[in-house]
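Hi V.,

You were right to ask for the full record rather than a summary. Here it is.
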Amino acid sequence: MRWIPFVLALLATPALAQQVSDPDADVSVAAPAYAVGGGPVIAIDAGHENFHTVDGRYAPTSAVARADGYRVVSLDAPPTAENLKAVKILVVANALTPFTATETETIHAWVEAGGSLLLIADHMPFGAAADSLAKAFSFRFEDGFAADPVRGPEVFSKANGRLLDSPIARGDAKGKPVNQILSFTGTVLHAPAGATPLLRLGTGWSILYPKEAWKFDETTPTRPSTEADLRGAAMAVGKGRIALFSEAAMFSAQRANNGGKAGFNAPGAEQNKQFLLNVLQWLSRAG
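Predicted structure:
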């Protein structure tokens, strides 16, 4: 196929090599949902070789959440019922080690009882590690790459139909409406019939499945995207709520040694921070 060399050229190098959190990013919140330090507890998983952690690449994420009133902690221990007792939102971002069957059962039961899960898995190899936890809720992450025809930040807007109407996009809790966000090279999320799609790839993308991350050639298995391929979705589960996304940088603020930026610090991503707030507020039932 003549388009394959073009797609391979787009993915010749990682979208943001050697990324680190951006200490200069604006993490302020004009109208916090909760009094400072008085909101629910958000625990960010650090026990599964996570690429994004509280004090690492998700430090700007943590700072925004704290500015919105949440109490943010790192969950270094296994997610047991005892460890999750005081937690309202569990964030898992780019785990490299899969969750055990016991951990998965514990998290599922915790959500059923009223907890909220924000599960994020990026491009290969992160989708494979998160897939077993996603499957417990009837979702699925692919272990590959989703390539937008236009190389660079991926636009999800109401205008192009990729940002879908939802309570999160509208900011129905204590947030504000969002019309456009950017993402920065991820994978594919599949959602069950009962879920609410939030971000849709739609047609026109290329989904690639290399044997090793960031190594592509003309033998790399590839398929065209479909309307079923998502970047984000949400769903109520028992008394709890879950939101899943197939790209991680859009919720943080990162920079690279080449000067590139990814996240709510990037040009055109000015509403990414509000989208993060809307997601957290929907999960915590702010309002």
